Amino acid sequence: MTEVASPPLAVNHNTHGAAGNLTDRQKSVAYLTLMVALVLEIVDVTIVNTALPVIEKDFGSAAAEAQWVSAGYSLAFALLLMLGGRLGDALGYRGLFITGVAGFTGASILCGLSGNPEQLIAARVLQGCAGAMMAPQVMALIQVLFEPLERVAKLAWVGVIGGMSAIAGPILGGLLIHANLFGLGWRSVFLINAPVGVVALIVAWRLLPKARSEHARGIDVWGTMLFAGAMAGLLFPLVRGSDLDWQPWHFALLLASPILLMIVWRRTRQRTERGAASMFHPELFSQRQFPMGLLIALLFGSSTSGFLFVFAFGVQKLLGYSPLQTGLLHIPFSVGVMIGIAFLGRKLIASHGKWVLVGGVTCMALFSAGTLGWIVTGGDGWWVLGCLALAGAGMGMTNGPLTPVILARVDRKHAGAASGLIKTVQELGLALGVAIVGTAFFASAGPGETGKLLPAILVIEILLLGCFVLAIRLPGPLFPEHDA
User: Fold this and answer.
1) Burial of 96 (0-12, 13-18, 19+ CB in 10 A)
2) According to the model, what pLDDT value does residue 275 have?
3) 391 falls in which pLDDT band (50, 70, 90)?
4) Which of 12, 138, 283, 325 is the most buried (most CB within 10 A)?
5) pTM attached to this predicted model
6) Are 294 and 422 in contact (CB under 8 A)?
7) CA-to-CA distance for 161 and 5, rounded, in angstroms?
8) Do 39 and 159 meet the contact criterion of CB atoms below 8 Å apart?
9) In angstroms, rounded to a whole number, what is the distance separating the alpha carbons of residues 444 and 61?
10) Which residues 6+ apart lie within 8 Å of 232 measured at CB?
11) What are phi and psi of 180, to 5 degrees?
């Protein structure tokens, strides 16, 4: 559940006059199509949490497989997001958007038709790959479709719709499973994407303009592959190590991961110095607010995704709640997130600076622990609704202003790449959270037990403590215009 960050895109586009030939109504329909694609991509990150306990029961799958159903999507999306943005610049936004929607729709159908956990995980990875091709083109095509003044309102709605989609995912998942449309059960969570995707494809083919960047600089394929290898080497042992009794090669992968990341960093610096295509510009890391902000985004994304993952599992597996009840239980959390974003985080960040983030992280730490503690104590009492609302407010206070804070001192010429890097880190956080917190939950369970919440709570609190320390160490004035 993260704020939508703008993907990498160029400012100047070659539209071939296509956008100018569209009527205002056609542009509105095209924009609506882009928003539908945005909703599909974001909802699929969170909707699966409500369905996972049902999927696990249906397949009789292992806990690690349930983790990969969630983490596999976010990991594939994160690793290919920057590549998707560059491909759109080079090959054309419309074509890559249509390809991404088609791939996402097809992968959704494969998810719904999966006959075993392995097939479902593979289909989810394909979904993430297709989403990474589709998502970056949304912002680029809005730039192509509308004049500068028109874009202001359109881009504002992107943030609103993206945020609402993320918090609506678990609720929608519970409703769909409860409705049991055509006897499909959890499969409807994925198959619902098919008709929506087909309509989006038809409209996109007819109305979206052909456009690409006039300044595309190519793609660092090997750099992208090395980065993907580093992340896979980190995540796989964290998810499967306990399940496979921690073999020596698991530790070898964990050791190889930081080495590969150092190689990626060195390669990126060398390619940037000689003017070749690179994943990002090292200059972004020259002032500390950007890397510190990225680390906060990574740790906070990990803590919140881990919390939501074990919360959905805990209320269903440990308390016996139905998917519908679980989805409805997310409502106070969702309300809290909206209040935190709209009325707390963004309104207070200019006047109170880093202390808004410190307060949001503290609120999330206290009340996420209280929420999971409610499950540990047997789920008695309605006080958990207050805990959920306050945890959501803490999340909104932190996530809402975090992207502007990270970008505050970034040179505008790097704004697109920086935004894409933020989104990549946020998605990696989602995958890492499910891996780390999920492993703490499942690995500590005894024979016949679903999982233990206390180790999971401990990991979540450690991640949030890291966010707290980093937020306090941010510079006093977060925005240059407030410098003395």
Assistant:
1) buried
2) 79
3) very high
4) 138
5) 0.84
6) yes
7) 13
8) no
9) 18
10) 75, 79
11) 50, 50
